Known about the structure:
The chain is of the alpha+beta class. The chain has helices at 6-12, 17-26, 32-41, 62-71, 75-83, 85-190, 194-202, 249-259; strands at residues 226-232, 238-244, 268-273, 276-278, 296-303. Helix 5 (75-83) crosses helix 6. The chain has 8 helices and 5 strands. The relative contact order is 0.07. Strands 2-1-5-3-4 form a 5-stranded mixed sheet.
Amino acid sequence: MEELTTLESLLEMGFGKNRAEKAVANTGNQGIEQAMDWLMEHENDPDIDDPYVPPVGNMLGGPADSESSATEPTIADTAEGTASGSGSKTEGDSKRLTEEEKREQVKRLEELMRVKQAERRARERAEEVEKEKQRRKQGQELQQICQKLQEDDMKKLAEQRRREKMEDKLARQRVKEKIARDREERAQKFGGGGSSSTAMSTQPTLPSPSSPTSQGPPPTKKEYDESRIQVRMLDGSTITTVFKAQEPLAAVRVYVQMNGNTPEGQDFMLLSPYPRHVYTDLDMEKPLKELGLVPSAVLVVTKK
């Protein structure tokens, strides 16, 4: 009894002629399983249903097809079998069994294809799960890095404020010591006996209110090297953090993308509410200090 060729098996399973021919040709006619694997891997190719054009000197089916064709009964054999009654009946029975076995073979191949498709779907699901795990892991690592950077910035800001308070305290102490020395010098200069010395000792205290103003250079404008930025999101919520004054505005945008609640893939713009100013792509490269966002600012997220 004959078995179906690879091409015939694919056609019996419902594959199109073009697809079946390409599968057989591209697998070198090595068997139905290789052809089915090729079809499942290339089912989404844009030219999968285009007619197959074989190379010169190459014919589909190969030796298996030639052997199958050679073993098929010819018209002369069929006619000769018809002339003899018993021979005709035996050949009819053989043909009927061959059809049944064809259906059985197609059924086995379809079951094999279902198994392979199930394995492929399971493999794809496993790959998707692994990719999702990697994406979440990278997101957590990035979030931890951002959180650590934010904590370090907050520590630096707290340390800077502590130093500023200490410097102010020392400056006030120096002013007080200077005033005390001035009073002592005036007391020694105008000091003496009797009531006159007492009267004179009270006089130097009169210009004392103006003396602190005459001490030291005039106050200078303070230079800030950090900026506290508050961002209002699309839903009205806010997030706040501290950036370096020389950091570009793009750093704020990245922080909003990582820590805000904007939908994934949603493009947005940043603007200052008052005076209203919408920041462009060119502004993203400029430092916060140059954009006037130091020492603090409020930005608003808006849809692009």
